[in-house]
């Protein structure tokens, strides 16, 4: 895959050298709610994942890309998931590591690059995103990027003994 380059970041395919970053990110319990994870991953399992990360989106129905600074520092991950070429849609997921990299435009630029790729290259008609109702930063980000709130999934996520709502967003390429 070509590098998808923006003004401050670029997106690239995962590399074997991303193992340590992936290990730290996937085993961070503070993002498990977003990723749907409930148990840690071993380096062995993640190494196997990276060995298969080159597989085609049409085969595995997912595309995970590293979000990198122009200085080649990995800042986060962005995904297309539940890829459905027949109905021309996919979900978008993003995680930016550490608070130091958040609220600096990294997420917005990464999602914008992915939107352009999904609509222009993959010929998708729509993208969707699931955002926790209490995640004000992500709610604002998806609205700012032209996603429309189309639903609320009541009591969708159970975390720390509390049920939380999840907001469903869509962006339709007209």
UniProtKB/TrEMBL annotation:
It comes from Pelagihabitans pacificus. PANTHER family: GNAT-FAMILY ACETYLTRANSFERASE, SPERMIDINE N(1)-ACETYLTRANSFERASE. Residues 9-170 form the N-acetyltransferase domain. Transmembrane segments: none annotated. This is GNAT family N-acetyltransferase. PROSITE patterns: GNAT. It comes from the Bacteria. One of its GO terms (molecular function) is acyltransferase activity, transferring groups other than amino-acyl groups.
């Amino acid at each position: 895959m070509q590098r998808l380059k923006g003004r401050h970041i670029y997106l690239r395919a995962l590399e074997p050298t991303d193992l340590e970053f992936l290990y730290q990110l996937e085993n961070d319990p503070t993002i498990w709610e977003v990723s749907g994870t409930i148990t840690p991953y071993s380096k062995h399992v993640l190494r196997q994942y990276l060995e298969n990360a080159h597989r085609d989106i049409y085969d595995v129905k997912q595309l995970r890309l590293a979000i990198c600074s122009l200085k080649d520092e990995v800042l986060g991950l962005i995904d297309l998931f539940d890829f459905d070429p027949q109905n021309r849609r996919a979900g978008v997921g993003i995680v930016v590591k550490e608070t130091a990299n958040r609220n600096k435009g990294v997420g917005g630029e990464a999602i914008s690059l992915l939107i352009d790729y999904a609509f222009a290259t993959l010929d998708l008609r729509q993208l969707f995103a699931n955002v926790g109702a209490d995640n004000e930063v992500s709610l604002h980000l998806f609205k700012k990027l032209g996603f429309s709130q189309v639903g609320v999934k009541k009591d969708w996520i159970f975390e720390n003994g509390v049920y939380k709502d999840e907001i469903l967003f869509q962006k339709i390429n007209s």
